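stage 2 :: seqdesign
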């Protein structure tokens, strides 16, 4: 087992790990379609999420040329609008930018601030450069550097995205810690030799019995405390 004192740079996934993507999108959909019942909003949210996941996978499999999340979110918003019979262009345009207005989890802002006083801290997100910039500002996330997978024209878990973080960190991958609430994300980081820490969130992709990550934490406070106590 790796020792936590060996970590030099901490890299965070953003969507779902530091911001509550599901509830943020649900709120934006409800605002756009105020007459919808909760069940209808959940169906629209599922349609959005499935579209994003499917299109990013198609890009990863080479079935579609790379487009950034602003394009894919715009498509997802149009799907929601079509299902809800929403025709107002301004409302649809605002909905398309919903991913730039997601709320942080309660421990995210303070946890990042504490950690950044002792470690170089990077964000590593599938969100486009512009979306990531605006999301960070909205949620109050403060980084030493925020990296978008758009820089390598790929989506996690493509290995070149994690390599982007390793190259930016400027140290061996075993001294770079990838933190995420998604097991699939951490598996991708493991392939590149990064250390891994799973942080539990109410939504996400929890580890399976076959996953062996270096550390697991119930929240960001536990992670920060462990890193600070080394």
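stage 2 :: out
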């Amino acid at each position: 087992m790796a020792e936590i004192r060996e970590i030099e740079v901490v890299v965070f996934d953003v969507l779902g790990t530091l911001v509550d993507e599901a509830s943020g999108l649900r709120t934006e959909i409800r605002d756009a379609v105020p007459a919808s019942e909760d069940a209808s909003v959940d169906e629209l949210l599922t349609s959005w999420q499935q579209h994003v996941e499917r299109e990013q996978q198609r890009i990863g499999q080479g079935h579609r040329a790379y487009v950034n999340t602003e394009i894919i979110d715009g498509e997802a918003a149009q799907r929601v609008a079509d299902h809800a019979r929403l025709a107002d262009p301004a409302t649809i345009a605002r909905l398309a930018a919903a991913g730039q207005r997601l709320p942080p989890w309660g421990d995210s802002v303070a946890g990042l601030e504490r950690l950044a006083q002792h470690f170089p801290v990077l964000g590593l997100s599938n969100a486009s450069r512009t979306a990531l910039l605006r999301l960070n500002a909205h949620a109050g996330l403060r980084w030493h550097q925020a990296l978008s997978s758009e820089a390598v024209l790929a989506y996690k878990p493509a290995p070149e995205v994690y390599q982007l973080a390793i190259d930016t960190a400027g140290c061996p991958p075993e001294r770079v810690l990838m933190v995420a609430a998604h097991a699939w994300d951490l598996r991708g980081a493991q392939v590149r030799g990064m250390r891994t820490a799973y942080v539990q969130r109410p939504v996400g992709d929890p580890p399976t019995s076959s996953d062996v990550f270096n550390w697991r934490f119930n929240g960001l406070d536990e992670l920060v405390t462990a890193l600070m106590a080394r």
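stage 3 :: structure notes
- The CA atoms of residues 5 and 230 lie 5 Å apart.
- Residues 38-60 form the longest helix (23 residues).
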